[in-house]
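Dear support,

I submitted the protein below through the web form. The confirmation email said the job was done, but the results page showed an empty box. After a refresh the structure appeared. I'm attaching both so you can tell me whether what I see now is the final result or a partial one.
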Amino acid sequence: MGGITLLLLWLLLPVGVMRCALSADRESDRVAELPGQPANVGFAQYAGYVAVDAAHGRALFYWLVEAAAAAAEAEAAPVVLWLNGGPGCSSVGYGASEEIGPFRIRPDGKTLYLNAYSWNNAANLLFLESPAGVGFSYSNTTLDLYTAGDQRTAMDAYAFLVNWFERFPQYKYREFYIAGESYAGHYVPQLAQLIYRKNNETQNPVINLKGFMYWWTHGLISDTTYHNLRATCILQSSEHPSEECVKNLNTASAEEGNIDPYSIYTQPCNNTSSLKLSLNGRYPWMSRAYDPCTERYAKIYYNHPEVQRALHANVTGIRYPWDTCRIFFHVVLKVENIFFPYTCDSDIVGTYWADSPRSMLPIYRELISAGLRIWVFSGDTDAVVPVTATRYSIDALKLPTLINWHPWYDNGKVGGWSQVYKGLTFVTIAGAGHEVPLHRPRQALILFRHFLQNKPMPQRTSFNGLSSVELFGAELSRAYFSIIEKDEQCIVTFVRHVSFHS
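What the results page shows now:
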């Protein structure tokens, strides 16, 4: 008996050691407090690295913001993975710091304040800087930065999730969603497809994928230019267009004028000419950022050594500063057997992007058939990924309509428009640009809550047509009461004295 007991202990020991190691990793990732953070925030934070390819030395940086303690059913709140696009832009710099995260950075680049409309009021938020070479994520194999593409980004993100759930086993089997914006319109459905297929090959899969959401108008170019674009660009990858396509896109950019294409009615913080020049990347339609006045604060904050220490970031001593999209890298040039260190400033990840499928629609068809919850939404002042383009893409799916195009309401005012299809919901947000939660944070949180609950966006129910109400069995005419509609509720106020007798 003693021998059997000893054998069982010997077999169980490696499992116990592994669990202790994972628990230690999790606790070492705990963020005690960020520099400049408000006191008593009411939620826990974790940040650090998860290896995705040991042979190449690739590791992705994450930041987990748990659901606020005040959130309803916080103990069972879902996990939402957030991905920014680019390709090559930081989910920490944009998603966490400008859009859905719990903190905003003040103009001093040192202090933070709370975002009242953070999505961690409803879910646990997992921000991932992906692929390697973006933000704090890194690879010890330089070639990785020149060969990144859609396929490897999805594979690395999946490897990250598998390892992350081992580090945070309390979130296994919890409802899991993926959300993102812009070029994450590739990342999000591709990762969802990979998880769905891997889950079908696995008994009792731990990633309980329930659905995903992402967002990508206005007549800003001439009809001639529009037809030229259709003729030269429509069947091409956005990352690898032809010379003729680029020529017509440059014409379209010139016709738009000096506007901020990410929010066409918003006054930029600096001179519009310099702003547009700084936003335009290799191609005028693939600009990287919204407003340098907001991203500038992030660039200052996340380069403070004490901030990086608090986030357990840059532990390998990366030799370039953190940035929202751009990457600084160091090379050694060999000239006549003499080696010279040289520093370059280039968006390597975006410039050398390897694969970028022209259409995501086949993936959508597969995942719609699988029954995943899919919501797509757009800010209606975004000219980079406009509402019209999104609607054309959805129309190509030829889905039957369940709820026709209609306005949705926030406090009695139109918050945007929506249409519900079989397998997909499309929502617009009035007055929002490319980064919807930045421009319309309250409406974005309403949208997010309805997505998690799988409820159509709130429609206005008019009570003003009521001529009478029944109270305690007595019918009162409209002369006795007034009606106020607020927060999707009807508030009846008596304007005359009413007496009831038994």
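Response: this is the final, complete result; the empty box was a page-load delay. The CA atoms of residues 85 and 149 lie 12 Å apart.
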